[in-house]
Amino acid sequence: MRKHRVAWLIPGLLLVVMISAIAHGAEGFIVFHSNAHGSNWQIYRASADGSNITRITFNDALDSYPRISPDGTQVAFQSSRDGAWSLYKIDIDGKNTTQLTSLPTQERFPSWSPDGRYIVFQDRRQSKWQIYRIKADGTDEVRLTNNNYNDAWPAYSPDGKKIAFATDRAGLWQIWVMNADGSEQTCLTELDGRYPAWSPDGKYIVFQSNRDGDMEIYGMTADGKNQTRLTFSPGEDEFPTWSPDGSKIIFNSSRTGAPKIFIMDADGSNQRMLLDTGHTDGFPHWHK
């Protein structure tokens, strides 16, 4: 094991944190969606360095937002193949597709619990997005939020005890956190914040925000403090997620035109394109 030093420069404060990391940050694989083989998004897999791109799903609908199970054997994703967005899972080799939800609403943005037993997601049943939980086989649905606003983009903490999410209940999107059972919902960001993603050690959260005029990536400690802008590009930077060792962040960026998958160090340095199919690529997720 070695240490990666991550420095987030904040006005009046230099926050230096130490994140444990494995020796090779480029290990593992990435899943993402792309329309590389036609007009519809499908699910793809690539090596962590962006090579060896392989298509996983094959259909005429939209398959999007892939999320790898904690054991690396399956991918949960959202698909429009039944007319409305529903949740599915598939083996990492593209075999054994299973439908998890089948309501005529909009089930989207799945997130696995760290033990692989549950999946949380958002659904819009009464005109507003709310957050729900199911078992990994699609059974035993539980509603976790219940209000007249939009709650979206849920993400389990690495210890499974909390769920970060975004809500517009204050009149703008903010990052909130709650216990895994939906209790003790607390605001972390007073300014705009969307699409939270926990660091592997649970100490930090990255998210996207347009608080400075366009969509960029920001980081903060898990208690909402030390909010720091990490990207400064003319395009939109969105949907950040961490490398398994916490040393890097991959994300979507339109800085070169159509959305592509970029990578940077956890402090925002060394930003570069990770992979390019020549088409629209998005919603990356990295597994060791």
Q: Nutshell version of this structure?
A:
By secondary structure, this protein is mostly beta strands.
Could you describe the 3D structure shown?
This protein has strands at residues 2-10, 13-21, 29-34, 42-47, 54-55, 63-68, 74-79, 86-91, 98-99, 108-112, 118-124, 129-135, 142-143, 151-156, 162-167, 174-179, 186-187, 194-198, 204-209, 216-221, 228-229, 237-242, 248-253, 260-265, 272-275, 281-287. The chain is mostly beta strands and 288 residues long. It has a single domain (28-287), classed as Neuraminidase (6 Propeller), CATH 2.120.10. A four-stranded antiparallel sheet has the order 5-4-3-26, with no helix packed on it. It is globular, with a radius of gyration of 18 Å.
